[in-house]
Amino acid sequence: MRICFVGDSFVNGTGDETALGWVGRVCALAYAHGFPITSYNLGIRRNTSADILERWENECSLRLPAGCDNRVVLSCGVNDSMLEDGALRVAPEQSRANVHAILRAASRYPLLMVGPPPMPEDAQNEQISALSRAFADEAAALGVPFIELFSPLVADAAYKQEVASNDGAHPRSSGYTKIANIIASSPNWWFHALL
Amino acid sequence: MRICFVGDSFVNGTGDETALGWVGRVCALAYAHGFPITSYNLGIRRNTSADILERWENECSLRLPAGCDNRVVLSCGVNDSMLEDGALRVAPEQSRANVHAILRAASRYPLLMVGPPPMPEDAQNEQISALSRAFADEAAALGVPFIELFSPLVADAAYKQEVASNDGAHPRSSGYTKIANIIASSPNWWFHALL
């Protein structure tokens, strides 16, 4: 079983001093539950949904050979919501269209989408929250399971404090552990303990 | 600081139930030594030196933006030495030429090469050993530091036993820990404890 995790710095695990990130943690948990998956971490710092739309197919096709149980997990959005020269890096309608295009084209694989996490600033969080809901709607319309990070994390003062005291964007290992636990405990996640 | 680790399943960490592989372990060690690096694991299962020659530049250029301290680590060779339909997947002279081409083109980045690890079979190990020496020669000719894995691991009965009792090619976490320790303790490695 081979899984490509496609996304941004949060997928990459930037800032995690253990070098696991949430991707490493959910994969180690899957292993422990009896699923020895091969994972490919395709998170790139500063990538927007537009950047991912450009590259995901080429990078995934090199890693997901015919004959394997191949899957794709997509997560993005925070970089779309960044202001650059006074404008959003990607307009919300375009973010939504990009995610729709990726999910539709990737539908030949079992797919999962993980929503964007919150940032420390309330103004950006309004953007992120709206994007997360829009991505959830797009995923639902295409029958793709969606795991939300925004609501549980925006209510978590310790998570936001860790991000603020780190680099202002990324958590460290305890925040990534929280993200991994949200994903691994979701009924939409693929790999639960075999009872 | 951003590092692309380009290579095969051993770079990917295939078989490691902790999901760290040697790449995750050397990055966590670097973090602990005061180097908060962003790492990109670009190891792909079954990739030969020819496969890597095709893709490394495109994938690295998307991850190593101007203005960062960008580095590349290359490791390959075991898949080149595999027999398929009675022939080596890549002939030794071609493997050497591929590695030369990658190292020369990547010389705009600080570079490091890690040699291929041994396999359980003596016949394949003759090929791997010769490739490791050839890659070391190519690296030396281009002034690229090289860290050998073959000699210390081929003499390690516990390593070979772990590989043989796993899938016949990849170690599990204790083997990857050994590889990480060989790399992290090499004078050619970049990130040692600040004294």
Automatic annotation (TrEMBL), chains A, B:
Pfam families: Lipase_GDSL_2. One of its GO terms (molecular function) is phosphatidylcholine lysophospholipase activity. SUPFAM superfamilies: SGNH hydrolase. Residues 5-177 form the SGNH hydrolase-type esterase domain. This is SGNH hydrolase-type esterase domain-containing protein. The lineage of its organism: Bacteria, Bacillati, Chloroflexota, Chloroflexia, Chloroflexales.
